[in-house]
Amino acid sequence: MRATWIITANASRARIFAESDPAQPLQEVEDMVNSAVRLRVTETESDKFGPTAAGKSGHNIGGTQGVGAAHNAGVGAPNKTYQPAHTPAEQEAEQFAKDISHFLLQAHQEGRFKELVISASPQFLGALRAFLDPHVKSLITNEVNKDYTHLNPQQLREQLH
């Protein structure tokens, strides 16, 4: 089937629909669920961040503060307990984006769709874009930064058209 695929996604769910004829209802191709996003923090994190974990501030950089743009220069690399400001939830969302991207690439290589429409929550759309193969990116005809995963197929079609 050489159809247009419509994907609606967020960090916890991705639904993929096929549209071969605008007069016919959308056909659901795949419903992917990222169950790791629904886990408790204690189930996804094994340890606490170290004392110099990178919060969203510059106070843990190991030098004098407020010396202008060069305040980081010369302070050296972070110590061994440094952890980037990348939460387990963000890592799981990235892995889910990779899984979706792999699925789309495989489907493209099998010739299952000719065009792609993507609707995703704004945060997840950025992650998904980062992992899409260039061949799949070239098939995107429309992008919408809205989360429509909760809509039924008819409502989704109305929102996108």
Entry summary:
The chain has helices at residues 41-44, 88-109, 122-131, 134-137, 153-160, and strands at residues 3-9, 13-19, 27-33, 113-120, 140-144.
Describe this protein's structure:
Helix content is 30%, strand content 21%. It has five helices and five strands; from the N terminus they run E-E-E-H-H-E-H-H-E-H. The mean pLDDT is 81. It has helices at residues 41-44, 88-109, 122-131, 134-137, 153-160, and strands at 3-9, 13-19, 27-33, 113-120, 140-144. The chain is globular and about 50 Å long. Helix 2 (88-109) packs across helix 3. With 161 residues, it is an alpha/beta fold. The protein has a five-stranded mixed sheet with strand order 3-2-1-4-5. The chain has a domain at 3-39 and 87-160: eRF1 domain 2 (Nucleotidyltransferase, domain 5, 2-Layer Sandwich).
Could you say which structural class the secondary elements and strand pairing correspond to? alpha/beta
- Radius of gyration using CA atoms only: 21 Å
Strand order of the largest sheet: 3-2-1-4-5
- Low-confidence parts lasting 5 or more residues at pLDDT below 50? none
Question: Could you name the CATH class of the domain at 3-39 and 87-160?
Answer: Alpha Beta
Task: State the assembly state of the protein chains.
Answer: single chain
CATH homologous superfamily caption of the domain at 3-39 and 87-160: eRF1 domain 2
Can you tell me the overall shape?
globular
CATH topology of the domain at 3-39 and 87-160: Nucleotidyltransferase, domain 5
